[in-house]
């Protein structure tokens, strides 16, 4: 109750913040020049760069990136240099200045698979395209829970970019982004996450991302502040590294499991082989979801406080989810390898030590002073989910707590 009250207070405060004088948002007119880059367009829309977006030079970009976004001096020099190296400027001084529209020349700085613009194959790679952005916004969860304290995580951003690249590749027969160009999409993902990083919370608020990517607008009215510390190339590179490793390393669910070897039960840490994906279902878009297979039936179990379940085998190959309470499981002959399971966030285990593979089974004691509530979910046809055994013994906190950063 208290949290949501504070959140509302913050949201109201954020909404009340004015745009800086002289830098109010003004959409481009028909003769203004704009680019495929939301970062530069927003600077022009807020008059940090000339509003007409024409005849821009390096000092102008350098000053605007510092004043509006808090970047250190010199950070964007390599990008501006590329304009002249690719020889894409159409101004009268093409070695010193450029118009924003010049940046739309395909296969120079502009590449296929952008988050907010379509590929040139479909005719327009410069204007915001709602149909391109819709699935990205859905992956980022920008369509719901837009309170001031909701934010885009690095994991979600990496998955959203990965999905956008995969979609662009599928629908565009001329898709030609090379591996290094793919990397540039993660580079621009790092750019928006870092440019819009809220210094106070250390996160990138969703409303700021939505205004920036969706409207080429700096979210002053939603509370955007560039903060007081200078943004650096090193931090931006670190963000890019994190995004790339998240995009290449898929995330998997680790669970403690009761297995069996040589007719005896074992306690092991399993990694379920179907990786997390970004959910697109109504109600939970943008969430991380892993498929755990089909279920035969389901039962709800209320175990008394301080209960000893004795030695027994799993009745079926089944998921067991403890919503509350505390369980301690051991296997005969190996007292050192006990597994404590607490109900709640990490209360999921898989039990596979059925009578056909384990002679004695395992023993579970419920040490809690309250009831332990469990949901039993036997798998369809007694299937065991495809998995890798990470090690013997239960999964440790670090192996399961990583999931927290997904939500
Ligand atoms: C000032 C800070 C800047 C920020 C925050 C920024 C941010 C971004 C973002 C988030 C994108 C991805 C848009 C999308 O995928 O739809 C992007 C794309 C782009 N940016 Fe910037 N940018 C900045 C500066 C620059 C500069 C200095 C240049 C070149 C002079 C530039 C050229 C481009 C181009 C050509 C694209 C399109 C790339 C593509 O095809 O995906 N940007 N930028």
TrEMBL record:
Signal peptide positions on this chain? 1-16
> Which family, according to the similarity comment?
Belongs to the chloroperoxidase family.
Key words, A-Z = Heme, Iron, Metal-binding, Oxidoreductase, Peroxidase, Signal
Keyword Iron applies: yes
Query: What is an example of a GO molecular function annotated in this UniProt entry?
Result: peroxidase activity
What protein does this entry describe?
A: Uu.00g137960.m01.CDS01
PROSITE patterns documented for this protein? HEME_HALOPEROXIDASE
* Cofactor list: heme b
UniProt source species: Anthostomella pinea
The residue ranges of the Heme haloperoxidase family profile domain are: 21-244
